[in-house]
């Protein structure tokens, strides 16, 4: 079923409708990382969700055709990094297919459980993967929080990077 797309405009196919609707939805920007056999992998995600407080669970989606999927599909732990509004360039690097995401100027280190942890983010978590749920051409990864840090701002006053209308944005006062 498709919704009307306006006066005189042809109706959109379900996938086009979904993309058009979600372009209007502002989402926080995160980078997901994992150790891989050929080196660390990572990607920009706007699908990060808090699932449960007890146990502390998060979820994110990843396409099965993504270059990071093979490593994420095998990883026991993943990193979740909340980006600040000053990190648009970092988000763009991790969103670019074929980019050397962990080369300079990306600052990172080996974190708990061997997971790559990015420096300078608003906050990060290392989570134990508990499920990979098939969802069309994606998998929904559910992971339990094991380690983390609020970055250099324990009050959490850093401003997050957002994604809206196909581009990165900042909050407005």
Report on this structure.
The protein contains three helices and twelve strands, in the order αβββββαβαββββββ. The protein is mainly β and 173 residues long. The protein starts with 13 loop residues before the first helix and ends with a strand. The mean pLDDT is 90.
> Radius of gyration from the CA trace?
17 Å
Helix content: 10-25%
How many β-strand runs?
12
The CATH architecture name reads Roll
**Strand neighbour order, sheet with most strands:** 3-2-6-9-10-5-4
Amino-to-carboxy terminus distance? 39 Å
Give a topology summary.
Blueprint: H1 14-23, E1 27-28, E2 30-34, E3 41-45, E4 49-52, E5 57-63, H2 69-74, E6 77-82, H3 88-95, E7 108-110, E8 116-118, E9 123-135, E10 138-149, E11 161-164, E12 167-170
Antiparallel strand pairs: 1-11, 2-3, 2-6, 4-5, 5-10, 6-9, 7-8, 9-10, 11-12
């Amino acid at each position: 079923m498709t919704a009307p797309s306006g006066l005189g405009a042809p109706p959109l196919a379900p996938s086009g409708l979904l993309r058009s609707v979600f372009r209007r939805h502002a989402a926080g920007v995160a980078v997901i990382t994992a150790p891989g056999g050929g080196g660390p992998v990572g990607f920009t995600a706007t699908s990060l969700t808090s699932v449960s407080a007890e146990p502390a669970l998060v979820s994110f989606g990843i396409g099965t055709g993504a270059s990071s999927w093979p490593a994420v599909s095998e990883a026991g732990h993943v990193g979740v990094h909340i980006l600040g509004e000053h990190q648009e360039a970092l988000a763009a690097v991790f969103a670019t297919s074929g980019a050397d995401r962990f080369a300079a100027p990306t600052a990172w280190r080996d974190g708990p459980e061997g997971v790559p942890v990015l420096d300078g983010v608003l906050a990060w978590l290392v989570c134990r993967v508990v499920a990979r749920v098939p969802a069309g051409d994606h998998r929904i990864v559910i992971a339990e929080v094991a380690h983390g840090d609020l970055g250099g701002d324990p009050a959490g006053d850093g401003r997050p990077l957002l994604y809206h209308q196909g581009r990165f944005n900042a909050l407005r006062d």
